[in-house]
Specification:
Layout: H1 2-25, H2 33-53, H3 65-81, H4 95-105, H5 110-113
């Protein structure tokens, strides 16, 4: 579990950084479509790795801190899509990781912990 958390913090987070930068650190006219495309390719590689790490419905087999470490980064991709109109977050997730994301979002306490301002659409 600790290894998965470290992988999320050290690799998955770094793979999401260029997407977050394009979405939030740049004005629409400053965005670099080639940089974003390369970032999305790198992100697809990371999601493929995490899919291989999965042991059942959750990363470590049962719901654990590893899932709670990875989800915010995966979930924040939805927020990036509010600023990047051509970006489909699901396009970087494997079917297994998309199903995992849905299981996390179906947890009974999920809505209480989801940041309210993430629910608003931004442009």
């Amino acid at each position: 579990m600790r290894r998965l958390i470290a992988e999320a913090d050290n690799y998955f987070d770094k793979a999401t950084d260029p997407v977050v930068d394009e979405a939030f650190a740049k004005k629409p006219e400053e965005r670099d479509s080639a940089r974003l495309a390369a970032a999305l390719d790198a992100l697809r590689e990371e999601t493929a790795l995490f899919t291989r790490y999965m042991r059942g419905d959750y990363l470590a087999g049962a719901l654990s801190a590893a899932d709670f470490a990875l989800y915010p980064m995966v979930g924040f991709l939805d927020r990036c899509a509010t600023r990047l109109p051509l970006f489909e977050p699901a396009s970087v997730l494997t079917p297994q990781l998309a199903a995992w994301k849905a299981r996390i979002e179906a947890l009974p306490y999920f809505d209480k912990t989801y940041p309210p301002h993430w629910k608003k659409q931004e442009s």
